[in-house]
Write a structure and sequence with these properties.
The complex is a heterotrimer of chains A (256), B (346) and C (297). Chain B is mainly alpha-helical and 346 residues long. Chain B has 15 helices and two strands. The relative contact order of chain C is 0.20. The chains are: A alpha/beta (256), B mainly alpha (346), C mainly alpha (297).
Chain lengths: 256, 346, 297
């Protein structure tokens, strides 16, 4: 059994087939891209994997477990974390609180230990704080730890979202358009950063991205979706020369 | 940043609590009963405001059932403290069911059991309704509050129906009330600032993201609901033993509305705000009695208008909502750091 | 239960259901457009009854003219409430709008207590509504019958407006997608005002008929009919006019039948509707005729 497997996933909304027969296998340490024109069903794939949607049919396996249709928080606890295309931070909480929320799932103390600050809770709380600060340091946001997340500029909000996802201790990380809204310089930094966290945290990464420079630059394999169907799978150079892919993208451009 | 001056903060908190109880000691000995009563109601409103704010302001679920939980706490505590003789006198339509008719226990355990009963109903109501979205939850909890009143009216062999319970011992005083108020503020503040509180606030800020970060949404909503209901039950028990008479109508939607005014004016999400607004609301309500009294303005005699106070308060709520949604405090909290920074220049 | 008393109860249930439907439509239309539970709607129902009451008492108007005056004035009040209290909060969080709606409701109730006095007032029931009609042994009050006729007239008028006029098309468009409707050149603010006017007017009709039925009025009379009508709207599928109608009739008939068949539960009559609400929300939150709206994650 592979590390992660999406097996014949189908997602229908009423009459609309958002994703049709999606298959994906990942091995530990993979860095895989998921691309395709707008509305191709990429985010829907993420939403199925993370439990936001229950697939109409098909199964999802992660580390020898069938996780199909499990609740999002359970899937997160099993080791799959994500970021969002339209950033979803806890805007009125501080940066450090944003990251610390992710540790809550592993908290072993009950509510009374927390309220009365009993030793076991305080040990965990302090450990959470240290670790969260360390993560913020990695994304170079530690100096803003006490600021509100909503006050950050766009690019930094994306970095905070990644830090927050990392704090859940994922084995598989799903990044939904991490480079969206970034300038070329930030994008370059991001590419290095993604490779760096993959190695440092032993991650497997699946990412959706429109910026071809990012996808071609860091992904080892690429899945191309169009109208819910997988039209091509291969290495960056194979994808670049695939006529189907070119058609899908050029076809889109005609209407753009 | 997090740890420095920690002991200073503890010390300051301790000193303020000592000062608070010194004031109560003074008030208890020097004020007349009317003022003491108003101040006691203020303390109860702090408990109610802070507990509803945990549900509505911190967790962001819109509950309108607070009066129902208060009623449960009030009736439970009252039925437990009433003497056997008083029960026989009160229940002349239908006798009180066994074994309640033979029980009479001290105030504190009665209050606690009242809180636990309210919390249990919080769990019972929360499980079906907290899966609903915001607006529906509001209506469902409002419905729960109204159902409770209907049930109180109809279960005559437990609640004595519309006649209510009379002759409760006036246990509630400033000490009990402010003791509980301090504990409520302590408990809920600590909760909000703990890992659990971060999870609750995360749910308020963005439910989808909170769940994606591993927070079990439903569990935490129910948790907030139960804690809020517990303290509402305590508040209800205190109110019952202040008024010494309770009946079902006392716990209808109008009571919830008063608490809603408190948390909105104080600032949804600010415990400090709820404490301030909760304290001053009953005082303002008493003070505003003058607008209900007959008065002469520029030689024109205006007869007394009973009920005018609540018109003023509902207008006040509307004005706050329309022009100043943050209320007094927004989501900010009082903190010693702020005070320390002003006085101690490093 | 005899055949006669069954039909007697049924006719009572239908007429009560019609009144719920009249109020429920206003809730449903406003919710459909603004996604706001207009808590004040039950109090507009109350105002409708009081306006007609004073119309007949002070100005000695005939009942039908009082009804029309009441419709016009409440429609105006409905618009005023929207412009004054809800419009400033269009882009505010939903919870703010909801609290404001509760605030308006509480304001109207307390103002009613101050202006009209807390004591219930007897409502004049015109003679033609005060007769007993006997059809095949079933004895019903003429009001029960006429109230249905009046309800039906206004419902036909409503359906005509919603489904046959340009304004109605605009209402449906705004309800489906406010932003697109605005881009298509629909005057959204005007449509919202018209929606409030129609909803409030219908509530006034319900209020006057309700007042004749019982026949007395008090400033808090709107709370329970309002809540139940809201439940009827949810039951039928909120946002749908037909759903509000269906929900109103189901709730009215069910309530009367509950009391008729299980008199020992009559004390719980007011709780029954909320039980239905919680059940429907758990089983089919979109209501009987509602359509599911999928939120984007």
């Amino acid at each position: 059994m592979p590390f992660f497997k999406a097996d014949h996933l189908v997602m229908r909304f009423g009459g609309l087939v958002a994703v049709n027969d999606f298959n994906l296998e990942l091995q530990p340490g993979d860095l895989v891209g998921l691309i395709g024109p707008n509305g191709a069903g990429k985010t829907t794939v993420f939403n199925m994997i993370t439990g936001v949607y229950r697939p109409t049919s098909g199964r999802i396996y992660f580390q020898d477990k069938d996780i199909t249709g499990k609740r999002p928080d359970i899937i997160t606890a099993l080791g799959i974390a994500r970021t969002f295309q339209n950033i979803r931070l806890f805007t009125d909480l501080s940066l450090i609180e944003n990251v610390m929320v992710s540790y809550h799932v592993r908290l072993k103390s009950n509510i009374f230990e927390a309220v009365f600050k009993l030793p076991r809770y305080m040990r965990q709380e302090n450990a959470m704080y240290e670790e969260a600060m360390e993560l913020l340091h990695k994304v170079e946001l530690d100096h803003l730890a006490e600021e509100k997340a909503g006050s950050l500029p766009y690019g930094e909000q994306r970095r905070l979202e990644i830090a927050r996802a990392l704090a859940t201790h994922p084995k598989l990380l799903l990044l939904d358009e991490p480079a969206a809204g970034m300038n070329p310089n930030e994008t370059l930094q991001l590419m290095d950063f993604i490779k760096q966290i993959r190695d440092e945290f032993d991650l497997t990464i699946l990412l959706i991205e429109h910026d071809m420079k990012v996808v071609m630059g860091i992904c080892e394999r690429i899945w191309v979706l169009d109208y819910g169907k997988t039209i091509a799978v291969g290495t960056p150079s194979e994808i670049q020369n695939n006529p189907e892919v070119i058609k899908a993208y050029l076809g889109e451009e005609e209407y753009a | 940043m997090r740890k420095e001056k920690l002991y200073l903060r503890y010390l300051l908190t301790l000193i303020s609590i000592v000062i608070l109880f010194l004031i109560i000691w003074w008030a208890d000995g020097h004020l007349d009963n009317y003022y003491k009563r108003v101040l006691t109601v203020s303390g109860i409103y702090i408990i109610l405001g802070v507990s509803l704010n945990l549900i509505n302001g911190i967790t962001g679920i819109f509950s309108l059932g607070h009066a129902g939980f208060m009623g449960l706490g009030a009736y439970t505590a009252a039925l437990l403290t009433m003497s056997v003789a008083q029960k026989q006198m009160t229940f002349f339509i239908e006798p009180l069911i066994s074994p309640l008719d033979k029980i009479s226990i001290p105030f504190l355990p009665a209050l606690l059991i009242g809180g636990v009963v309210a919390a249990f109903f919080g769990l019972l109501i929360g499980i079906p309704t907290l899966r609903l979205g915001g607006d529906y939850l509001a209506i469902a909890t409002l419905g729960f509050g109204e159902i409770i009143v209907v049930v109180f009216n109809n279960t005559i062999n437990i609640t004595n129906g519309a006649l209510g319970l009379k002759g409760l011992s006036p246990y509630t005083n400033l000490w009990w009330t402010y003791g509980w108020a301090v504990f409520t503020v302590f408990f809920i503040t600590r909760l909000v600032n703990s890992s659990y509180g971060r999870a609750l606030k995360a749910i308020r800020e963005n439910e989808v993201a909170a769940q994606a970060m591993g927070v079990n949404i439903f569990y935490h909503k129910v948790l907030a609901f139960i804690v809020g209901a517990f303290f509402a039950g305590i508040g209800g028990g205190l109110l019952a033993h202040l008024l010494t008479t309770i009946n079902p109508v006392a716990f209808n939607f109008f009571l919830t509305f008063n608490i809603l005014i408190v948390i909105v004016i104080g600032g949804l999400g600010s415990i400090t705000g709820s404490v301030i607004a909760g304290f001053f609301f009953p005082i303002l309500l008493e003070w505003l009695r003058f607008i209900e009294a007959p008065m002469d303005v520029f030689g024109i005699h205006i007869p007394g208008i009973p009920g005018m106070r609540m018109v003023v308060f509902s207008l006040l709520l509307l004005i706050v909502m329309i022009f100043y949604q943050r209320g007094l405090m927004g989501r900010s909290e009082f903190s010693w750091d702020f005070i320390i920074k002003r006085f101690v220049k490093d | 239960m005899s055949w006669e008393s069954f039909f007697q109860n049924l006719s009572n249930g239908i007429s009560l259901g019609g009144l719920y439907a009249l109020i429920a439509i206003g809730y449903s239309m406003v919710y459909g457009i603004l996604r706001l539970i207009n808590f004040a709607h039950g109090d507009i129902f109350m105002l409708g009854a009081y306006i007609a009451f004073y119309g007949m008492l002070i100005f000695s108007l005939p009942w039908w003219l009082s009804l029309i005056v009441s419709i016009i004035l409440t429609a105006f009040i409905g618009i005023l409430i929207d412009k004054g209290a809800y419009k400033p909060l269009r882009n505010a969080p939903r919870i703010s709008a909801l609290i404001t709606a509760i605030g308006v409701s509480f304001f109207l109730e307390n103002l009613g207590l101050v202006v009209f006095g807390g004591r219930p007032k007897g409502f004049y029931r015109p003679h033609i509504f005060d007769e007993i009609i006997t059809i095949k042994g079933v004895r019903i009050l003429s009001l029960t019958f006429y109230s249905l006729v009046i309800t039906a007239i206004f419902l036909v008028l409503l359906f005509y407006i919603v489904y046959r006029t340009k304004t109605g098309l605009g209402m449906r468009a705004v309800s489906t997608d406010m932003e697109t409707a605005r881009l298509m050149g629909i005057d959204v603010d005007k449509i919202i005002s018209i929606t409030f006017a129609i909803g409030s007017g219908l509530a006034a009709v319900g209020g006057v008929l309700w007042a004749m039925k019982y026949p007395q009025i008090n400033p808090l009379m709107g709370i329970f009919p309002g809540l139940k009508a809201f439940i009827a709207a949810v039951l039928g599928g909120i946002g749908s006019v037909g759903g509000a109608l269906l929900g109103g009739f189901i709730l009215g008939i069910a309530e009367i039948m509950l009391v008729a068949f299980m008199p020992q539960l009559s004390g719980y009559r007011d709780a029954f509707a909320f039980l239905i609400l919680i059940l429907i929300l758990l089983v089919k939150p979109t209501g009987l005729l509602g359509v599911e709206v999928k939120e984007k994650a």
